[in-house]
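Before relying on records like the one below, remember that each one covers exactly one chain. Contacts with other chains, cofactors or solvent are not represented anywhere in the record.
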Amino acid sequence: MKAKTDFEELISFVQYSKGQCYVLCDENTFKHCYEVFCQLIALKVQPIVIKAGEAQKNIATCEFIWQKLIDNKADKNACIINLGGGVVSDIGGFVAATYKRGIKYINVPTSLLAMVDAATGGKTGINLGHFKNMIGLIQQPEMVVLHAPFLNTLPKKHLKNGFAEMLKHAILNGKDALNELTLNKDITPQLNEKVILKSLAIKEDIVAQDPQEKGHRKILNFGHTIGHAIEYAAQENGCEILHGEAVAIGMIAALKLSVLKLEFDCNEADLVINFIRSHFSKPAWISANHNKIINAILQDKKNSNQEINMVLLADYGKPVFDVVCTLDEIAKILLEL
């Protein structure tokens, strides 16, 4: 599925829905984006507003949304329009996929992270305790519509948050894509639509080859095994870290493991690591929480047969999935960080 940059098809969809469309927002996107969205489609669509933040990505929030749908007598023809970042698209997609055994949903991402990653691919889900995306399923959205000006509502750190996933896509694609992206010495200014679509196209191509993540699509988890574990440790300690910030650290670890396990060129790895470190700092609390990070890695949903499966690089554009790494190897890399 290719993301759209115009609202024509979405407008037609809403017009023929007979009042059965609902816009899911968090408090921030309701304040900054909801009225703009309604103006863009020249229609008023009923909002469902949830609290903002990763902490809301749980079953209680789903129950709140399901109840709102029931209160409004939403039937099998209903549709949820997810207007927000990754948390909104993950929750909204999951609620849609499970309400009355599945209704349609549309993603209109408002953050850079959602535009280049979370809104496309069909992954939906919620967290279980502090464990990321433990409950969920894959169901493709009816459509994804991008509106780059929504990025004007983002603080600087949230642009960096999305840029981490763009960097991941470039690494997976090859050295040319990586070189082009790293020309951005300052990664936080407003990114134009062309740059966003180019990064998104890399993900869309990978997803198209393996929609259900049975094989090749697993490469999109590069940097995420340790990244998700760092997010877990942050929540355990009441600390804040954005998904992209954690994935950036996870990519550094994955690059070091790639040198160790797949003989990836250490000089090339250092070039990318230095670029990442120039834009993403490592929080001080990580060093004191290695055991919590290791425990979270053991619970990663990509593991099988009690083995830790990682996505590593043989070279730029040549990722290898399901590379088995030992706890000792991962602990060694964490110390090196």
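Residues 143 and 273 are 35 Å apart (CA to CA).
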